[in-house]
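Thread: Newbie trying to understand structure tokens

Hi all, I'm a second-year student working on a class project, and my supervisor (Dr. K.) asked me to get a predicted structure for one chain before our next meeting. I've only ever worked with sequences, so writing a 3D structure as a token string is new to me. If someone could post the tokens and maybe explain what I'm looking at, I'd be very grateful. Here's the chain:
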Amino acid sequence: MAKSPEQQPPVQAFGWAARDTSGVLTPFKFSRRATGDKDVTFKVLYCGICHSDLHQIKNEWGGTKYPCLPGHEIVGVVTEIAPTILENYCPKMVQTYNSTYYDGTPHMEATLTSWWLNEHFVIAIPENLPLDACAPLLCAGITTYSPLRHFGLDRAGMHVGVVGLGGLGHAAVKFAKAFGVKAAMGTMDGIIDTVSAQHPLLPLIGLLKSHGKLVMVGAPEKPLELPVFPLLMADIELIPFGLCEHRDGTTCEG
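---
Reply by user tm_fold:
Sure, no problem. This is what the structure looks like when written as tokens:
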């Protein structure tokens, strides 16, 4: 009878970890469990840097578990796979790091030289996409593509604004252009706010049409001031959004 991952010898792993709130990454060696029956292991080739990684390694959101190996925009080449058919869906949210897996194993992820995870969280990258450019699509891409589609801000001729031109903002602008959305001039149908630091919301609310949508996908470490009265007067929707959509139309939190 085959041994379970818990019964097999641990596998030596290497990555880069933050050990305190300085956020400095240093080499880190540790042991992980063996690849399980439902797992896929791959060699990490590229990993994008998201602002949420910076929040986490500096404990700006609170609750960071050190050592913390950040990263979640990850692509690579499969080196080991369980003999099962891959199904791409999320039965339950599992963080890529600063968390624990179903079996209690600490998640230490993308700044590793190799990575292992359950088959549910693996997708095949189309051959015509370069891997180095594809990595940011796994967070910045889906985080901005999804609300544009979900809230109907993807129709040609609409006026949509993007606040913040970092990783998320650049992806949002490119998707909006591909959808045929107009550059925002005057009042807007919607705004995608990608800013991960404190900033005033009132000027943004003033740019929206009546019944417009202000979609928040950034995650500042400190609370923002919310001016409720202007929202009421113009019937503006203020929407925090953290869902990603899969090809079959289902969604998963993350």
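A couple of things are worth pointing out once you decode it. The two ends are 36 Å apart (CA to CA). DSSP finds six helices and twelve strands in the chain. Feel free to ask follow-ups in this thread.
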